[in-house]
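lol ok so funny story. i was supposed to be doing the assay writeup but got distracted and ended up predicting the structure for this chain instead. priorities right. anyway since i did it might as well share w the group, maybe its usefull for someone
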Amino acid sequence: MTEPPHEAATDLIALPGTPLADAVVKLIRPVHTPSVFNHSARTYLFARLVAARLGLAAGRDYDDDLLFAACAMHDLGVASDGPHRERFEVEGADRAAEFLVQQGTSTADADQVWQAIALHTSPGIAERRGTLCVLVREGVALDFGGPLGARHVDAVTDEQADAVHTAYPRLEMVRSLTDAIVAQAAKDPKNAPRYSIPGELLRERDIFGRTRLEHACRSSRWGN
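and the output, tada:
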């Protein structure tokens, strides 16, 4: 039986209503800009579409609560209340894992989330570290519309994309997130190792005023 269109659209943009998911939202909403918060939500929604395309089912192949936690907190390293003493991927992973353990998540599950967040900017590595790492990496890449990897950019129809972007508008996400990463990277040399994503974004902003990522996204599927 075909699902009614309005129900399908509601399911497409629905975030989990579990106690853990609610706690994660309560943690990140006050410390992210609306643009970065919406990016985190879209990353989860797009990751679920990638999972469906790969034939992966929640509850069988991955834990949906952990997927939401990893997607929603993957940029916690640039949160306004962070210590900003490590590169943003690692700092975000550390904070997320600690938070999950405090919420009663097992250390093994928290470590899965740690890996997914710490490796989300590491193509070729994330894909070898399990389903959660794959889905977070692909969800992030899909929200950039192509420049971070275009393997699943056509997993989203125009109608699905419109529904997701209506619920969680982009709000110049690429510029906003790049601003946050660069600001965090500039606070301590440890935050921006050479040839890392934060290191290169900081260097390109300093030299050129705009990063290659920002330039590439101007012609990506979603734009900025």
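The chain is about 60% helix and 0% strand. The radius of gyration is 17 Å.
back to the writeup now i swear
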